[in-house]
Amino acid sequence: MPTPMLFTLPDDQGQTFNASEHLPLIIYFYPKDNTPGCTTEAQQFSTLLPQFQQLGYTVAGISRDNQKSHQNFICKFSLELTLLSDCDEKVCRQFDVIKEKNMYGKKVFGIERSTFVLNQQGLIVHEWRKVKALGHAQQVLATLLNTHA
Question: Which CATH number describes the domain made up of 8-148?
């Protein structure tokens, strides 16, 4: 029997975000605020947010950045998203998105860009790993539209 993937993290406003209160939920994990790929992905999820909401979904981005970084990122790019801080990587590890990467010849551990859709029970019903930022939010929306058709 699958286990619900529920968690609690602080959001960009310093409030507690309980996943169980926001189901069904789209969560996307991204490496870092204010980097080109992460900005593209956040802007595209933000633009499509009304369409996700029409289908009944909440959208939240998760990275290891702190609340202040998230606030600056949202403000700088006028994002309409909830961003969650997972500074201790607990939720990143729960979803197995911390992977070894090669940065300028050095091995480092970082977040592998990934997206998960949780249903009303908190179970993963769709997942994408090793995501390319450009066009990904549209791909998620298309999948959900096909599911709801």
Answer: 3.40.30.10
